[in-house]
């Protein structure tokens, strides 16, 4: 994967009204990391994941 990009985003429902999105992200230092974000809807969880990854703040939350 090129720097600053992520692989396939997968989402699942953690609990009622709680969704989690996760993917692999190739950070700007060249290291590929698993990143995850959660939110109250599937779309919001995906947006949060993309937003955090696009500004180089990807953090592994496993």
Summary?
The protein has 62 residues and is an alpha+beta fold. The protein is built from 1 helix and 4 strands. The radius of gyration is 11 Å and the shape is elongated.
Structural notes for this entry:
The chain is of the alpha+beta class and 62 residues long. It is built from one helix and four strands; from the N terminus they run ββββα. Strands 1, 2, 3 and 4 form a four-stranded antiparallel β-sheet that branches.
What's the helix-strand series?
A: EEEEH
> How far apart are the first and last residues' alpha carbons, in Å?
21 Å
Low-confidence region ranges: 58-62
Kindly name the structural category: alpha+beta
Query: Percent helix among the residues?
Result: 10-25%
Count of strand segments = 4
Gyration radius (Cα, Å) is: 11 Å
Overall 3D form = elongated
Beta strand %: 35-45%
Largest sheet: 4 strands, antiparallel
Number of contiguous helices: 1
What's the rounded overall pLDDT mean? 84
């Amino acid at each position: 994967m090129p720097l600053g990009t992520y692989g396939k985003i997968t989402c699942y429902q953690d609990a009622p009204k709680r969704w989690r999105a996760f993917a692999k992200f190739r950070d700007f230092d060249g290291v590929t990391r698993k990143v995850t974000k959660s939110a109250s809807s599937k779309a919001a969880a995906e947006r949060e994941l993309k937003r955090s990854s696009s500004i180089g703040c990807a953090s592994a939350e496993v």
